[in-house]
Amino acid sequence: MKRRHFLKAGAGATGGLWLAATMFPEVGESTIASPPSGGRFSAYLEITPSGEIFITCPQAEMGQGIHDGLPKILAEDLEARWGDVTVRLAGGDDAYINPLTRRHRTASSESTMIYYALLREAGATARDMLRIAAASRWGVPLEHCVARASRIEHAPSHRSLSFGALADEAARVPLPLAAAPVLKDVAQFTLIGTATPRKDTPAKVDGSAVFGIDVQLPGMVHAALRRSPAVSARVLAFDRDAALALPGVIDAFVIPDGIAIVATSTWLAQRAAQTIDVSFDDTASAEVDTPGMRARMRAALTEDARAIVGRPGRGQPSYDKEATQRALAKADRTFEWDYEVPFVAHAALEPPCATVVVRANDVEAWVPTQQQDRVRDVMSQVTGIPRARCTLHATLIGGSFGRKWEVDYVRQAVQIAHEVAKRRPGTPVKLTWTREQDFRHDRFRPAHLVRTRVGVDAQGRIHAMHSRTTGVSLWRYQNRPPIPGAADLFVVSGLISDTYRIAHKYVDYVETPEPIPVGTWRAVSHSMNGFFAESAIDDVAVATRRDPLELRLELCAEDPRAVAVLRKVAELTDWRRRLPKGHGRGLSLALAYNAYCAEVVEVVVKDRRVEISRIVAVFDCGLVIDPRNVEAQVEGGIIWGLSAAIDGEIRFAKGGAVEDNFHTAPILRLPQTPRIDVHLLRTAHPCGGAGEASVPGVAPALASAIQMASGTRPRRLPLISAGFSFA
């Protein structure tokens, strides 16, 4: 029995698992690019004669709630009833390229920021097209026609027409309109800023939602990979005839990453892949082991000649290395601390998977991906078929945290389908990785080691700060061209917070190359640099006997949003309250993706056993689309950061990852998760990101709380490596 059949039967639902036509936009690239007609107002909006309002969400839905968030923005200025709206997922189509990024991608917590203005204008334009159509039909002045609750009303005559009744002729109204559409005032919002039940929840509950792993197509075959456990290897030889003799196996061949086994089911393909004899050349990974890499990073911290100075954030003054070094030399007191984070896996619940059909003149794929545009590039590159004839259906994503940003698994699926098509043209092929392959061949968040030097004056005020980081380059593994004379932007961003006003400061980077593939993990550099930067601030507070809150308020006094979240979290946690022996409280401030997050973690420590009492977060991401969804994202980010802080580590030995599943690289379960209180500051600032800014602050706040309670500050993650256990 299929997993989805089981879930649907358990929920009392009926029906098969074939992809529903309504799962994807029903038009191809050339149709979307043509003038609107027949109820289609744009790539984002279609209204049927029956009054159904289909809004296409251009961004990938991976649990972050953008499936509802972006359509709600369009529906607000359209004046549509939310109950009339059905949300579609966008396939890969250049019509959805964002004019700000020139990409069709989901990344950097930017979805709401980059589509907010575009979708509001799309909704307002369609609203006015409907008004024009109604005014023309009735022969009345346009200004007398008002849109309200999916209808156009003419108050003087008490007439009204549904959007559906007007859709066909309204979609044909010539563009651009005579006057630019007027956007609603924020005070008039009825959808934006309001919590509504998520439209994707019922389908996820009853099993009808289609994730990448659920795709079923007629005549489909299934593929699995046999790969070396090493992070880098090549196939030397395998017995193809023996593989073909195994139950269910249809084909077996070499692709660049290993052996592809094609069979009649995923189970038989994976069983065969585990059974066959393969010889690999793993020499490129021979020196990949955790103790050796840590030793190389520690040595690199002293290599001044290789250190490249980073660049501050936009709008910040340039770093002055020489002035900072002079200030450190003249400081009344100086301190130096080392901090460390390990390699971490993405550990998404849905492992990498993709379904591909290669035909004589076109390619079609169903993929859970964050990069719709790059997936189509890969389809064309592998097959040689023009990109315009490469069709992508983007499915729901069963968790990503940055993993589905990569296209390695897509390339493998296309390579396998292309080879299968030589003997069985037009056969759909679904590749599914095993859980162990996902952990061993992830694009890991890199391990980094940081040394921070701080100079303070007689009053304990920070006068100068220098932080140096070393580890694998994220920039290089993203195949980005190097920036002459500048350090890896991914690695150094936020290493010293731009919101803290420190007279003399700079950051630099010494690259420590390793053959381990790395990638973007939730919050990217902020996820590790938040730990480094905020830990240093708390170490200064302890060393100078200053209150961590007052020190931060002093450093960010010129940033009202930072001050506001700090003061609010202090109020909610009664920061001045004295704590009993063995109790601790830690504070952090994170600024990431145009959002501010202040967190307080409260703990009780006894004999190095830690119990987290609660975590309080105050979050300001500017204009909020759906408050409950933002709260959920803040909670999710905290849990993700907490999981990594407590026991998140991928170690390496003999060239490969040691941890290979959830039992060896756990994430927090519900019974282990502490109470989390989220307070949103509803401000008038432009939209910021919600899914990542709560990740960076939880680890340093937890470490500071442990220090207060136990007298020992852990400066290396995960915290269990310092000998702590957690209740």
Q: What do these coordinates show?
A:
By secondary structure, the protein is an alpha+beta fold. The chain has 20 helices and 28 strands. The strands form seven sheets. It has a seven-stranded mixed sheet with strand order 10-11-8-18-15-16-17, sandwiched between helices. A five-stranded mixed sheet has the order 13-21-20-19-14, sandwiched between helices. Strands 22, 23, 24, 27 and 28 form a five-stranded mixed sheet that branches. Helix 11 links the parallel strand 16 (363-367) and strand 17. Helix 3 packs parallel to helix 4 (111-138) and helix 16 (525-543) runs parallel beside helix 20 (698-710). It is globular. Mean pLDDT is 93; it is low at 1-31.
Radius of gyration equals: 28 Å
Distance between the termini: 38 Å
Can you give the helix content as a percent range? 25-40%
Number of helices: 20
Shape: globular
pLDDT < 50 runs, ≥5 residues: 1-31
Largest sheet: 7 strands, mixed
Q: If strands are numbered along the chain, what order do they take across the biggest sheet?
A: 10-11-8-18-15-16-17
